[in-house]
Amino acid sequence: MTSFRDLTTSQLKRIVVIKEKIEALQRQMESIVAGGGGGEIPIPSAGEAPVPAKRILSAAHRRKLLKALAKARQMRWAKIKGEAATDAKPAKKKGRRKNAAGNSERETAVRETGRGLVEHLDEIGRRQGHAQLMQYLMNLRIHYTEESRGRDGGHGCPVEIRDPFHADTTPDWLKLAREQFPALGEAIYSFADRHRNRVLRRHERNADIAGLTNFMDVMAATSKVLFVYLRRGVLNQPQVIARMRDYLNIFTGKFPAVPEEQTTGYLARIYSNHKGDPGPLQKTLEEHNVSGHLRALLRVAQVVRGTADASDLSHAASQLPMLVDQITAFENRIGLGRATAAQIGKALEGYEMLTRQELELWTKDMA
User: Fold this and answer.
1) Rg, C-alpha atoms of the chain
2) Is 2 left (phi over 0), alpha (psi -120 to 50) or beta?
3) What is each CA distance from 228 to 57, 119, 251, 354, 363, in whole angstroms?
4) Is the dihedral of CA 236, 242, 248, 250 positive or negative?
């Protein structure tokens, strides 16, 4: 129903005229009831225009009417101006919209490549607390893409990473939220599993070599979050190592032992699709340092398996022997070749979670 204040001046004037007609007819009816006016109400003929009864408004009544008209006009213009201002606001702000932590460039990099995710989480936790951080993790989706690009190129903007990064350094905001570790841990596991199922397994099903960069970006981002929050005491070793095993199995895969079985794994399925022409495939794998990334993730898993908080490297080389043999056999099967210490070190640099001294220790006596 239209409000009185939304009516135009013309509409209000028409209402006054109609009201005056009603009042005139009402007076005629009262006159008939009282026995005057000949007992009939004059009805105009078809060709005769009705002449409205005129009523002279009192000064007080006229002032009230003018006030009402002025007020209605004022309110109507205020409403029009308000709507115009609201419509104009989006036009003033161009460019990227800032996220909860106030850094649109980092948010873009995180959502497109996963780069700088841990640092971004630290910033959200510092500014808004653990509750907002968990909400962000539950809603975060790193983009899936099958666009071919260089491993060190890609979308997004350069991300400023704190150097050196100490994975075992617990931020002050996280120390204060220690009682929330179980809930935060579940949010991290959910994030990791969501990207395993919606990105890594999707690449495995599609087996398109053009998605290789995106696969390794997401694998590195989720592995880093798991590793760092294990070192900070939020996650536990069995949960983290189980997920890293999954990543390695999805990355490599298995070839069928009998004809009825299907090839599994991202690289195995790509190899099967290009078996007739392995030359271009080998070149792409070398350009993306696939052997280095495969052995880098294996070393992360070995370090995690070695101690509950992934802080001891002394026994890393002897950990997960069956998985090591499985990956070695896979490398030989597809002709990938064993990665050098330099290739593994370069891949580990992409995780951006080790100091220079730690990186040297991790790659010592490898390959």
Assistant:
1) 37
2) beta
3) 83, 11, 21, 10, 19
4) negative
pLDDT at 157: 39
As a whole number of angstroms, the distance between CA 271 and CA 282 comes to: 9
d(CA 167, CA 228): 5
Residue whose entry in the numeric block shows the structure tokens 């606001």: 89
- Give this prediction's pTM: 0.69
- Whole-number Å distance between alpha carbons of 229 and 236: 9
Instruction: Tell me the sheet residues that pair with 254.
Output: 264
CB 97 within 8 A of CB 104: yes
User: From CA 90, how far away is CA 41, in angstroms rounded?
Assistant: 62
First and final C-alpha spacing in the chain: 80
Helix (H, G, I), strand (E, B) or coil at 254: strand
Question: Per DSSP, what are the bridge partners of residue 264?
Answer: 254
pLDDT digits (tens, 9 = 90+) for 132-180: 999 999 999 999 998 866 544 443 334 444 455 776 678 888 888 888 8
The answer to whether residues 140 and 92 touch, using CB atoms and an 8 Å cutoff, is no
Q: Furthest-apart CA pair in the chain: how many Å?
A: 123
- What is the residue whose two structure tokens read 């095993």? 245
Residue 48: phi and psi, rounded to 5, are: -110, 120
Cα gap 255→257, rounded to integer Å: 6
- C-alpha span between 135 and 120 (Å, rounded): 14
Q: 218-235, pLDDT tens digit by residue?
A: 999 999 999 999 999 999
Asked whether the predicted pLDDT for residue 26 surpasses 50, the reply is yes
Based on the number of CB atoms within 10 Å of its own CB, is 31 exposed (0-12), middle (13-18) or buried (19 or more)?
A: middle
Confidence of residue 96 (pLDDT cuts 50, 70, 90): very low
Closest to 217 measured CA to CA, from 314, 111, 127? 111
Q: Are 77 and 85 in contact (CB under 8 A)?
A: no
Structure tokens that stand for 113 in this block: 């490549």
Residue with the two structure tokens 């392995």: 278
Residue with tokens 């996220």: 99
Percent of the chain with pLDDT over 90: 45
Question: CB atoms < 10 A from the CB of 43, how many?
Answer: 7
**CA torsion sign, 105 to 108 to 112 to 117?**
positive
